[in-house]
Design goal:
Elements (H helix, E strand, L loop, with lengths): L5 E6 L6 H11 L4 E3 L18 H4 L4 E2 L12 H15 L5 E5 L3 H8 L10 H14 L2 H10 L1 H4 L7 H14 L3 H4 L10 E7 L3 H18 L1 H7 L15 H7 L5 H24 L4 E4 L4 H12 L4
Parallel strand pairs: 1-4, 1-5, 2-3, 2-4, 5-6
Helix pairs in contact: 3-4, 6-8, 10-13, 12-13
Length: 305
């Protein structure tokens, strides 16, 4: 009997050890890895996104890492399509594939699908980008609050991409974004095993602090300086980059920028945890429990249903 197609999803907050575990699993199950970390899609951003290098990949084929430019528009709908197309090809070679990342919406799009929403008008996208570039995030927050107070109450108000996308949908469709989000699961030609990584907050925060310091040592400031011509692009309005841009603009000291990166990364990790904890299908493990995780996956794979 042909084994059922199975997608193993590794999720959890930033700095929780997802990359290391996914490579270990890929070697055990002799398969490949799809990244669902939206920050690692961009080829110009490496140090600040903790993008795995060739040594960390250990010869395991990785997909959706550094395949875009920060100048390119890309969204979760495109990722859903690209991932499903690739999985269809990869499952012809191996019945088990691995997807790893901390971008909950992107993982959800692959496992359950997302609602079909209208594409934005280019002029509207340019207008919103200009507003954000010149006036910051507050006008976007106020605009969405008027258009769709229901969605505004639940959206990450510090994420300009989410704000802009919701505004675009509202103004293009003339309907509320919250009304168009049906969240009806789509059928998939594969089953999904969801593995979540967790640890005590103190341990996670210490890992975040250590990784931030390592990024600075590895040349984060120089990486961000090289991206200054692209500072206005949405991809670069993210933790680790926006703080260093402020330092380069002489708004804050380097010491303050590093402190802000650590603070904002901790906050980002908390939001990730809140998102993933809502999914009851996720089985949680400490990242050190690799053998237990492997046995858990194997026990499910034995079930041919």
């Amino acid at each position: 009997m042909t084994p059922p197609k199975t997608l193993v999803m590794i999720c959890g907050p930033t700095a929780s050890g997802k990359t290391s575990l996914s490579v270990e699993l890929a070697k055990v199950f002799q398969t490949e890895i799809l990244s669902a970390d939206s920050r690692q899609f961009y080829k110009e951003m490496s140090i600040g996104t903790a993008k795995p290098d060739s040594d960390e990949m250990e010869g395991v084929p990785h997909h959706f890492i550094g395949h875009l430019s920060v100048k390119e528009e890309y969204n979760v709908s495109a990722f859903e399509k690209d991932s499903l197309d690739l999985l269809n090809r990869l499952f012809q070679k191996r019945s088990v594939q691995i997807m790893v990342g901390g971008s909950g919406l992107y993982l959800k799009a692959v496992s359950l699908g997302i609602d079909e929403l209208p594409d934005p008008h280019p002029a509207l996208r340019d207008e919103l980008n200009e507003i954000f570039s010149v006036k910051g995030i507050k006008p976007l927050q106020e605009r969405l609050k008027k258009l769709d107070p229901e969605y505004y109450s639940e959206v990450d108000k510090n994420n300009p991409k989410r704000l802009m996308r919701a505004i675009e949908v509202c103004e293009t469709s003339k309907k509320k974004y919250s009304e168009l989000r049906k969240a009806e699961p789509k059928s998939r030609p594969f089953r999904t095993i969801k593995i979540g990584l967790e640890m005590p907050r103190e341990e996670l925060f210490e890992r975040i602090h250590q990784r931030t310091d390592q990024m600075i040592d590895d040349g984060l400031v120089e990486e961000v300086r090289s991206l200054k011509p692209y500072q206005s692009y949405n991809a670069l309005n993210t933790v680790g980059y926006k703080e260093i841009f402020r330092y380069l603009g002489k708004e804050i000291s380097l010491e303050q920028a590093i402190t802000d990166i650590k603070t904002n990364t901790r906050r980002y990790a908390k939001r990730q945890i809140t998102w993933f904890k809502k999914d009851n299908e996720i089985k949680w493990f400490h990242p050190k429990d690799k053998d237990i995780i492997i046995d858990y996956i194997k026990s499910i794979l034995k079930n041919k249903a």
